[in-house]
C-alpha cells in the first residue's frame, strides 16, 4: 500500500513509501481508512519536536474507517463491517498505579498511534480493539475524524479547566480543537470569549456563538472563570493567567508548548489562580465526549485534502492556512 512516512533522519518532511498492509495483532482489528484528520501533533512528529520513537512512522491518529478483519482474540465489539475511530491513545499497561486509579493517560508504558505505531496516513491501519471508538451516527466520516483527537483533547482540557456552570471561558487559539471545545462549552451554557491572531478564526468563533473574539494580546471584555490555551505559545500563559478572575483555572492543552516567561506571583497566581496541564486522554474521556457529540450536533469545520496532498496539508497547517481542521480523504 502507498502510505505517507515521517522519518527521524529527515525532519520537516513526509514522503510517500510502499508499505505492506498491516497485519493485526491478536487483540487488534484492521481498519480500511476512509478519512484521517491532520493534527498539530503530526507536525510535531514530522518536525522532530517530539522525540522519535521509531525510525519511520506513518502519522495520523484521527482515523475513521471500516473494520475489515480482526485478530485471533477479537470477538467484538467492534466487528467486521462496523465504523470505528482510531485515536491517539493506543495502549496502556492496565496495571500500574495510574491505570489502577483511572489515570491511564499518565501510564508510563502508554503507546500512541502515529508516533509509536503506524497511523492513518495510509489506506489501512490497525488499532487494539479495546482502544477503538464506537462513533455516533449523523456525522460524515470527514467530520468525525477531527473529533478523535481535537475533540477528545479539547473535552479533557475543558474538564480540567473547572469551568463552573454558566461560567466565563476564555479560549486562546482557535484551531481544530478549540472550535469544537467552544461548541461543547456554549451548548452547556458557558459564555465563551475567543482570543486568536487569525481574523478568519475570529469570524468563525463569532459564527459559532462566541460572545466575543479578539486578538491574543487583547484582554477579554470581562474576567474569566476559566481559560484554555490551545496555541502552542508559552508566552500566552501569563497573558491568560492575568485575565483570570480570582479562583480561576488555566488549562493548557497540547503535547508541545514553547518556553513560558517568568511569572509574577501577584499578577498571575495570587488569589488562588491555578495552572493545569493536559496530558493525552483516557478512554473514558473519549466515551464521554462522543456521548456529548451525540447530544449536541457539533459542527466540525473541515478543509478537505486528497490523500495525495498530505504533505501540503501539513505545510498549510504549519503556516496557519487551514480553516478549522484539515482532513485527508482516502481514495475510493
Description of the structure:
This protein has 332 residues and is of the alpha/beta class. Helix content is 25%, strand content 27%. Strands 3, 5, 6, 9, 10, 17 and 18 form a seven-stranded mixed β-sheet that branches. Strands 13-12-11-14-15-16 form a six-stranded parallel β-sheet, with helices on both faces. Strands 2-1-4 form a three-stranded antiparallel β-sheet, with no helix packed on it. A hairpin with a 6-residue loop joins strand 1 (2-7) and strand 2. It is globular. 51% of the residues are buried. The mean pLDDT is 96.
Brief rundown of the structure:
Helix content is 25%, strand content 27%. It has 332 residues and is an alpha/beta fold.
Q: Tags for this entry?
A:
about 325 residues; alpha/beta; Quinone Oxidoreductase, Chain A, domain 1; 2 domains; 7-stranded mixed beta sheet; 6-stranded parallel beta sheet; about 25% helix
Explain the layout of strands and helices.
Layout: E1 2-7, E2 14-18, E3 28-38, H1 40-46, E4 56-57, E5 63-70, E6 83-86, E7 89-91, H2 97-100, E8 111-112, E9 124-128, E10 133-134, H3 141-144, H4 150-160, E11 168-172, H5 176-187, E12 191-195, H6 199-207, E13 212-214, E14 224-229, H7 236-243, E15 244-252, H8 265-269, E16 274-277, H9 283-295, E17 302-306, H10 310-318, E18 325-329
Parallel strand pairs: 11-12, 11-14, 12-13, 14-15, 15-16, 17-18
Antiparallel strand pairs: 1-2, 1-4, 3-5, 3-9, 3-18, 5-6, 6-10, 7-8
Helix pairs in contact: 4-5, 4-9
Amino acid at each position: 500500500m502507498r502510505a505517507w512516512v515521517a522519518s527521524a533522519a529527515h525532519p520537516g518532511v513526509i514522503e510517500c513509501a510502499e508499505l505492506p498492509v498491516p497485519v493485526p495483532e491478536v487483540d487488534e482489528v484492521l481498519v480500511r481508512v476512509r478519512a484521517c484528520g491532520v493534527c498539530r501533533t503530526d507536525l510535531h512528529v514530522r518536525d522532530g519536536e517530539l522525540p522519535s520513537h521509531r525510525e519511520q512512522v506513518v502519522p495520523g491518529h484521527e482515523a475513521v474507517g471500516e473494520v475489515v478483519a480482526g485478530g485471533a482474540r477479537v470477538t467484538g465489539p467492534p466487528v467486521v463491517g462496523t465504523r470505528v475511530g482510531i485515536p491517539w491513545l493506543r495502549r496502556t499497561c492496565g496495571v500500574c498505579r495510574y491505570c489502577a486509579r483511572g489515570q491511564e493517560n499518565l501510564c508510563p508504558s502508554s503507546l500512541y498511534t502515529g508516533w509509536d505505531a503506524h497511523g492513518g496516513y495510509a489506506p489501512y491501519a490497525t488499532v487494539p480493539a479495546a482502544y477503538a471508538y464506537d462513533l455516533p451516527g449523523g456525522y460524515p466520516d470527514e467530520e468525525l475524524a477531527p473529533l478523535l483527537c481535537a475533540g477528545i483533547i479539547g473535552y479533557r482540557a475543558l474538564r480540567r479547566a473547572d469551568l463552573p456552570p454558566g461560567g466565563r471561558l476564555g479560549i486562546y487559539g482557535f484551531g481544530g480543537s478549540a472550535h469544537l471545545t467552544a461548541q461543547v462549552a456554549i451548548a452547556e451554557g458557558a459564555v465563551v470569549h475567543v482570543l486568536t491572531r487569525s481574523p478568519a478564526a475570529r469570524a468563525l468563533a463569532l459564527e459559532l456563538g462566541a460572545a466575543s473574539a479578539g486578538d491574543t494580546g487583547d484582554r477579554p471584555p470581562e474576567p474569566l472563570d476559566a481559560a484554555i490555551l490551545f496555541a502552542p505559545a508559552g508566552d500566552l500563559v501569563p497573558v491568560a493567567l492575568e485575565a483570570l478572575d480570582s479562583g480561576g483555572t488555566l488549562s493548557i492543552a497540547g503535547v508541545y508548548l514553547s518556553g513560558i516567561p517568568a511569572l509574577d506571583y501577584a499578577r498571575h497566581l495570587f488569589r488562588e489562580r491555578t495552572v493545569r496541564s493536559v496530558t493525552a486522554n483516557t478512554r473514558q474521556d473519549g466515551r464521554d465526549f462522543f456521548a456529548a457529540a451525540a447530544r449536541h450536533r457539533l459542527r466540525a469545520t473541515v478543509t478537505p485534502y486528497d490523500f495525495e496532498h498530505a504533505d501540503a496539508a501539513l505545510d498549510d497547517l504549519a503556516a496557519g492556512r487551514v480553516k478549522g481542521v484539515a482532513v485527508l480523504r482516502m481514495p475510493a
